[in-house]
């Protein structure tokens, strides 16, 4: 009799734990929007002046995602995107600045040639930060971020973040580290290998409103 009571109690406790776990997962919102607002957008330069781009009407999703002054970018300053990137014009403008001041000069200095394409891993995406349920809305959900996974040189060679950051040829590693370091400042958040597991295979660049301590580059 005692054994049956113990078994019944154990089953009841297990069932309660399962209900509690399920409840915490189901009730948790996909992402939080407290303290998050779609950025006000005042572009200095129309992205169509330095690349192939299409203006997208301002939009807001019921979930809280959206964007203002968003463009669908196909290429910037002679660099073709592997897939169109949906980003705010400020992101496109900052990319153009980074390409002109860092990416191409570093490529010329290290490889003796230009970068001709970016492998785009992500741009606008209505999701939580790091795809963690219950986290705050990602900057991707406001068209305020772009992820780049690889860079192709004019001779066809690819510099891949995942493959080259730690174990690639020395010039590839030097190039990736230089352009990541010099993205900090123009971009307000810069993440990549070593930041966390989610950023091991790409460089994340965004224009999140700057914290009191300045840009976050890790």
Short description:
The protein has 218 residues and is of the alpha+beta class. It has 4 helices and 11 strands. It folds into 2 domains: 1-29; 47-217, Muramoyl-pentapeptide Carboxypeptidase, domain 2 (2-Layer Sandwich).
What keywords describe this structure?
two-stranded antiparallel sheet; about 220 residues; alpha+beta; single chain; disordered N terminus
Word description of this protein:
It is a single chain. Strands 1, 4, 5, 6, 7, 8, 9, 10 and 11 form a nine-stranded mixed beta sheet that branches. The chain has a two-stranded antiparallel ribbon with strand order 2-3. 31% of the residues lie in helices and 26% in strands. With 218 residues, the protein is of the alpha+beta class. Helix 2 packs antiparallel against helix 4.
Evaluate the radius of gyration. 22 Å
Poorly predicted runs of 5 or more residues: 1-26
Compressed to H and E, one letter per element, the order equals HEEEEEHEEEHHEEE
Output the number of helix runs: 4
Structural class: alpha+beta
Largest sheet data: 9 strands, mixed
CATH architecture of the largest domain: 2-Layer Sandwich
Q: How would you state the average pLDDT, rounded?
A: 85
Number of strand elements: 11
End-to-end C-alpha gap: 60 Å
